[in-house]
Batch of 4 targets.
Target 1
Amino acid sequence: MKFIKDLTPGDRIADIYMCKHKQSATTKNGKEYYSVILQDKTGTVDAKIWEPNSDGIDEFDDTDYIDVFGEVTSFNGAIQVNVKRARKCHEGEYDPSLYLPVSSKDNDEMYKELLGIIGTIKNPYLKKLLEEFFIQDEAFITAFRKSSAAKTVHHGFIGGLLEHTLSVTKLCDYFCTAYPILKRDLLLTAAICHDIGKTRELSLFPTNDYTDEGQFLGHIVMGAEMVGDKAKEIPDFPVLLRQELQHCILAHHGEYEYGSPKKPSIVEAVALNLADNTDAKMETFTELLGNITTPGWQGYNKFFETNIYDSKMDM
């Protein structure tokens, strides 16, 4: 199988890919065609079916696996597939693990490490809250371990939410050793819970798209609500502690322009924002470099707002 990340203009493909999205469109001349997003575990690629009513094109829908024959071209500097034939595949013809992006890190090991950190929390109320989510709630645990941390940008793969959460938590744990002013139990609980709203904001793979609730509320508000609701179920949970924890979640994007409902008002919220931003940007750059085939200057990147340079060959 030729993976999407390895496609280059001029290639001919005859492989099975998952249809992430299919949409009917019309050319300027009024001719119908299909715009399709093909996916495998290495990424997605835009594809076009210019003759959708021809004998070689089967009916298929989103999330179907299709056997594609076509040519790889380039349009506006991006890879595109010109599909000549497309056949809907049956179960058993494909291995789903080849088509869904998955964290390169072991999910069981990551979750075990996260539970180990939860075991170090001394505050009985915060520890009880974490245990209610991450030990007692089976439905939440399943969603948390399977969820991505984003639709795109960073950690957009199965296990991405767990990987990102663990990285942010470990960064916050380091901050606590470097800056004794920080309340470790509060900061680490906030770090572990800061993105739990993403279990409801994004649907699981293969869709990995925004839910209605996610569109209306967003993961930050939902996460703060989830924590608040859970805290209220714990007898005598201190009101101020609940508010501080919710504030850290509400402020973890740091600025209003980045979708943060609040700006950090306590030092733990500042630390969480820095850790979240650090891990998101480092993972984004890591994924960016992982898709580069030619070292050197890569051109302007909108996310980083600068010209990106790949220095791997300098090492």
Note: The mean pLDDT is 92.
Target 2
Amino acid sequence: MIIRKNISQVLLGLVLLSTGCTEFIEPSIEKKNVTLLAPSNGTESAVYAQTFWWEEVDNALQYRLQVATPDFNNPARLILDTIITKSRFSYTLDPGNYQWRVRAENGSSQTPYGKAAFIIQPSSIEDQQVQLQSPANNLITNQSSSVFKWLALFGADKYQLQIDTSNFEDETILFFNKSTPNQEFNVTLTKDKVYRWRVKAMNATVESKWSVIQSVTLDKTPPGVVFLTSPTNEQVVSKNVTLKWEALAEAKKYQLYVFKSDGSSVYSSTFPIILTAATYSFTEGKSGEKLFWQVRAIDEAGNFGAFSEQRSFLIQ
């Protein structure tokens, strides 16, 4: 009987290992290869803003992208060395000879690098487009002061930054319209609105195309007050009480406090806790303890709403 039982346990272990090993063991990707798509090896282009693109690798968590000039065997300069989670990345380069490479990585292994060489030919900035860097497109922020940044464009002496709240319908009444020799400008946004921005490069004779238009939203208005639903105030509850409140449409997260019987000392180092759901299972506490709790909402811009009422409950 003991032998049969041991054999059954071994067989069960083998079945679990064969059917669910990916849940416990991260697969190795060291024998896989990264297939580069663009720019392909030997490409020559007059476009300074290049989009590096490759096929995704199964079980990869991230990719290391590097660009060197003229190549990695005899590098004069490492232009780019970055970790990203997607399989595309855009970057603006000067004319010259380059080699780029990508490897896939996860927590325990990595692939060999896939490599390709390409050439950027000189061209007029009239044919080029400035690449915007930050703020990230569609950012929602509660910070009035924003630094607008973009990548340098070869052949440019200065840049024109325009910001508008009406999608550039009338360039005579823009919110912001200034030139600078730098690749950034600090601008103070004044009202809760959606601001759209764009940049073009210039030199003494010509101008580039306008960049793509990106947006940033200023939102300094806090969300509303959370209404607590259960337990009701001073309710007697069993241990492991579920705290609930009404979800707010403008809330992305909630901050929950649970206090000791004095109503002001946090119950434990767990609190305050940030939650995405409008409920929390409180498993701490002792029989006979009277505890207090309250919640406030946090919106996407990071604004904190006012606290809800403070309620108490008694653990029976």
Note: The helical segments are 2-20.
Target 3
Amino acid sequence: MRIVIANWKMNLLSKDIEAFCAACVSGYKPKAGVEAGIAAPYIYLKDVKAKLGPCGVKLYAQNAHFEAKGAFTGEISMAQLKDIGCDGVLLGHSERRHIFGETNANLVKKVKAAREHGLMPVLCIGETLEERDGGKMFDVLREQLAVLKETGAGPLVVAYEPVWAIGTGRVATVEQIREVHAFVAEELARNGAAGTPIQYGGSVTPDNFAEIIQVPHVAGGLVGGAALVPEKFLKLIEQAQA
């Protein structure tokens, strides 16, 4: 299974989303073995679901709290996401880890909560440039994947995004991607999650994705900037379907 997810982050307004969804409805052609999804800002999730539901594009949130309800001002629960029709949720994105202090301990609870509410958890992992250059890359990734020892088995997608390649225009080489995805696949098997799809993310565009998607253990992409343009997003899906 290949999965291409557009992570809109904190971008786009209603008029932009209207045009994006219209382009997807007219241009998206589903194909067996490849899923497409959009991770939209909270306030637009319901609109995106209404506009894209009929064409089969999946709906993802960009984060969520692990408690089903409670006094957590400003948070959104997995139950609420499920209630409005979400299919999955991104968890542990590097921006959540490094800017907002997301911890592995919280991610254990979030993965479990997502599964309990029927949402597909997309666990994001990745090293900084300092960690890579310091020879700590595999240790960092191993620690991030170790949360699966506590979550137990269940539905899961992993997205490997080298932090130094997110939004920088710098892309990991094919050999670097091959090396890391092979390592991640081995770690997943060691943690009881063999066969889990592993997406690649980090300045993915239609210019480099056709080559990246052919790398062993690369099962799609988690895409930022390029996925803000519907024509580019549709092209990425076509490349995954090829």
Note: The chain has one domain: 2-241.
Target 4
Amino acid sequence: MSLNKISAQISDSQQGDTKKMPPVELWDPPFCGDIDLEIKSDGHWFYNGTVFKRLSLVKLFASVLKKEDEKYFLVTPVEKIGITVEDAPFLITQWQWLDEQKSQMQVTTNLDDSFILDAEHPLEISDAGNLYITVRRNLQARVHRNVYYQWVELAHEDNNGNGAELVFLSADHRFSLGALDN
């Protein structure tokens, strides 16, 4: 399976609005094998050991990325190809408040996906202490270390009865950056 063939199938399936994500959750094509495509933990995409240099191609493939159980696939209406993801397929690299009241935080991934940090896109802490946000479907983005440190500066200490933690609000939801050591 070549990347040219996959990208052609993706382009064919994305007729119309290019901003709209393909409905990969509705597609259940046969598995066609694995391809040597890897998303590194730093957000870079590699094919046969070579980094992708065209962001537009990465965005195209990311639009048809699907996670089933703990495996990742590129999916078109006619085939499903396995790929490797080191950690999470996306990174949260930017954030901003959308209003003067600082009540809605918009976050942006390394592939320019932007959304409000809210109940639909929650912040979660892994067992290892890394922060992740659900981007779309069941695909997550790891919060980049620089963003984390910026959030620590704006967070406040809150004692929830089980100990103190650093928290902040967005879209009327409370998000924790983790427990504080006493």
Note: The two ends are 55 Å apart (CA to CA).
